[in-house]
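Our preliminary data section would be incomplete without showing what the modeling component actually yields. Below, a chain of 193 amino acids is followed by its predicted structure, encoded as tokens that our downstream tools consume directly.
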Amino acid sequence: MTKAFDLRIAVPEVRRYIRVLAISGSLRARSSNTALLESAARLAHAGMEIAVFTGLGDLPHFNPDLDGEGHEAPLAVASLRELVSAADGLIISSPEYAHGIPGSMKNALDWLVSYPDFAGKPVVVWNASAAGGQRAQASLVEILTTMSARLLVEASLVEPFLRKRLSPGAELTDDDALLAVRSSLAALSASCA
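Predicted structure:
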């Protein structure tokens, strides 16, 4: 289960603490998108906490009847929504399958479509592919725009920027990739302040 944000963290009065929820669109154990988000969490500056969502596969298939008037959202959905509410911004890193985003990623977004705390939330989109993925990213941008996310297009990393596949637990070592991730995080942080 995803680590919840620690709300007991001491926050200096002069500096706001930024909480970011990172969602990988991949369910693979050795996902380069998940590895990229985990690496970014380690790279985040001292005033930013990045929690990587690990419950994508636990979400039930989207069914508005399970979430309509008089019904409480399924537990996994409620957990995702709580994390979105607690986050100041989001990072979504998704692979491309058959020229689109994976069904599990679309399913998660469907559960957030009518969730009021998502609308207006700053979001950056990343792509961990070393060779492509632009069609999936274009689809993701369209979906997030329709959902009224505050998409930070200039800070998103949608063109291939990694020179090789990133393995789980690996650190980003390529100077260009490090610069791209840090610049994206800085822009997200600035939009959350």
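The domain at 18-192 is CATH 3.40.50.360 (Rossmann fold). The two ends are 28 Å apart (CA to CA). Preliminary results of this kind motivate Aim 1 of the renewal.
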